[in-house]
Write a structure and sequence with these properties.
Elements lengths: L4 E10 L3 H12 L5 E4 L8 H4 L31 H14 L6 E2 L4 E7 L4 E6 L2 E10 L21 E4 L13 E5 L3 H10 L5 E5 L6 E2 L8 H9 L1 H23 L6 H14 L3 H6 L12 E2 L3 H5 L4 E4 L3 E5 L2 E4 L4 E3 L2 E4 L14 E2 L6 H4 L18 E3 L12 H22 L4 E4 L1 H15 L3 H4 L21 H7 L8 E4 L12 E3 L1
Helix pairs in contact: 1-11, 5-6, 11-14
The structure holds NADP nicotinamide-adenine-dinucleotide phosphate.
Length: about 500
């Protein structure tokens, strides 16, 4: 490192999706301007930049799936498409003056806590820096997961993941294999079916699919929402309230979800007349155990004559032949993996080394755990946005993100009150107590009792991703930092350089 200059900042935010941009706005609102947003790609937007596959849209209504502090009266549809959501995030970046803070193409390679100086040493693709506080907003849906399929390297055709769509590859006239039946795949299937010569869908587990109540938001509504902001707020409030009322069925009384199962079965019956295909598409676990999917076009696409369902996972590839777990064989020119993301084994965790010299991934090898979804023991001044057990089954993640940003704001206030150079480190006992309470509540939830395997559960079968309560409750428990849950680290041997100065290391 000799001779290299490290820039020091008060806060380094990692990622520029909803979480990172939201953190940046929140820091500025707290009067903190000495921060950078480190982004590995060349543009902001996170998952809404990366996922540009045909048909990509959000199935949480846009008036709820947006920041409370950046309302958009012009949302074009109930469920807006990727293009509009991405444009919204670009707009937030401009409106809140975030561009000067952005460091694009600055992938974080490593983070190491300096135990004597009480700051983070950060190596990025754009050079090194140090920071008092790190906000990790890398998101759970950022690193694509490809199954380890033997022989995949022998496939002579095109292969890509749903989050890395190759728009230069023309699907017209091709035999395409789609792997997976999650939220991404069920949007892709109806979008590409009209183009391809043959589409084969590999389904390991059938999802529950409900009708999608999507429609255009009329010009009159948009006008009203612009001129009378209270109507926009009321719309958001209604969308939020309905979802809050549904929570207890997911978290406490899964048997109440039976009504939704009837609705979903009816939806399936209307579109699929072939009893064999219908049976293959009928789930055998409680609705809500996996994420409930919304689509009016998925089942009709599967009923098309040139679309086939293989009711088994992809097991092996032999050249251009795809072998399913049921032994059936399919010839294909292209494979599209809609196989999800590294959610319970966040790749960033391998790059963060804390106060004990261990990485976050090592500390989390038996399951992710963080106080109030944010701070892990042994990793001072390191806050995660969308951390462990902050995920939702039925509402808008933006509500959870904003709650975590309130926690961040109070964290920064507490550090200010302590005076320069102090750090906070979550007590192991507090993290354990928080985790114990969550896991106890998790026992009754549909995610744990519904009889399915989902990405909510980690390799040990523990649910380290979902929040077992309402968003209002999460907002309440993240309003303030309770200093009793933290050890205060004193700046005994801290370097003398102030924030924002250049420090030679
Ligand atoms: P996902 O929900 O994790 O689904 C992955 C799919 O791949 C599952 O169906 C899984 O089967 C299947 N799979 C894995 N290995 C397989 C194999 N060898 N053969 C066949 N199938 C295999 O991933 P995703 O669809 O990308 O969605 C991830 C999350 O992103 C969603 O849950 C949602 O939160 C978000 N998302 C939201 C929207 C939206 O708002 N509309 C759209 C896209 C994504 P099993 O079920 O058997 O494991």
């Amino acid at each position: 490192m000799a001779g290299r200059e490290r820039r020091h900042v008060r806060v380094a935010v990692i990622g520029s999706g909803f979480g990172g941009l939201g953190a940046a706005v929140r820091l500025r609102r707290e009067g903190i301007t000495d921060f950078v947003v480190l982004e590995r790609a060349g543009a902001v937007g996170g998952t809404w930049r990366d996922n540009s596959y045909p048909g990509c849209a959000c199935d949480v209504p846009s008036h709820l799936y947006s920041f409370s502090f950046a309302p958009n009266p012009q949302w074009p549809r109930n469920f807006s498409g990727q293009r509009h959501i991405r444009a919204y995030l670009e707009g937030v970046t401009d409106t809140f003056g975030l561009r000067p803070h952005l460091r694009l193409n600055a992938e974080v390679r490593s983070l190491r806590w300096n135990t004597t100086g009480l700051y983070w040493e950060i190596e990025t693709a754009d050079g090194p820096l140090t920071a008092d506080v790190v906000v990790s907003a890398t998101g759970p849906l950022s690193d694509p997961k490809l199954p380890d399929v033997p022989g995949l390297d022998t496939f002579p055709g095109k292969v890509f993941h749903s989050a890395r769509w190759d728009h230069d590859f023309d699907l017209r006239g091709r035999r395409v294999a789609m792997i997976g039946t999650g939220a991404s795949a069920i949007q892709i299937v109806p979008a590409i079916a009209p183009e391809v010569e043959r589409l084969t869908l590999f389904q390991r587990t059938p999802p529950w699919v409900l009708p999608r109540a999507d429609r255009r938001i009329t010009a009159a509504e948009q006008w009203l929402h612009t001129k009378v902001p209270a109507t926009r707020a009321a719309r958001r409030g209604l969308l939020w309230g309905i979802r809050e009322m549904q929570v207890s069925a997911f978290t406490k009384r899964p048997e109440r979800l039976g009504m939704l199962e009837m609705l979903a079965k009816n939806h399936l019956r209307k579109a699929i007349k072939d009893p064999g295909l219908r049976a293959a598409l009928t789930p055998d676990y409680r609705i809500g155990c996996k994420r409930i999917l919304l689509s009016n076009t998925y089942y009709p696409a599967l009923a098309r004559p040139h679309v086939d369902l293989v009711p088994a996972g992809l097991k092996e590839v032999r050249g251009s032949t795809l072998v399913a777990a049921d032994g059936s064989e399919t010839e294909a020119d292209a494979i599209v993996f809609g196989t999800g993301f590294h959610v319970t084994d966040l790749p960033i965790a391998q790059r963060v080394t804390g106060a004990n010299g261990t990485t976050l991934a090592e500390e989390w090898k038996d399951g992710m755990a963080a106080l109030r979804g944010s701070t892990a023991a042994g990793f001072p001044n390191f806050l995660t946005v969308i951390g462990p057990n902050t995920g939702l089954g039925n509402s808008s993640m933006i509500l959870m993100i904003e709650a975590q940003l309130n926690y961040l704001a109070d964290y920064m206030r507490q550090l200010d009150l302590l005076g320069g150079g102090f750090a906070l480190s979550a007590r192991q006992s507090a993290v354990d107590e928080w985790t114990r309470k969550i896991q106890r509540r998790m026992e009754r939830t549909v995610w744990n009792t519904g009889g399915c395997d989902s990405w909510y559960l980690d390799a040990n079968g523990r649910n380290t991703t979902a929040w077992p309560g309402t968003t209002a409750e999460f907002q309440r428990v993240t309003r303030r930092v309770d200093l009793a849950e933290y050890e205060v680290l004193r700046p005994a041997d801290r370097r003398s350089a102030g924030a924002g100065t250049e420090v030679a290391v």
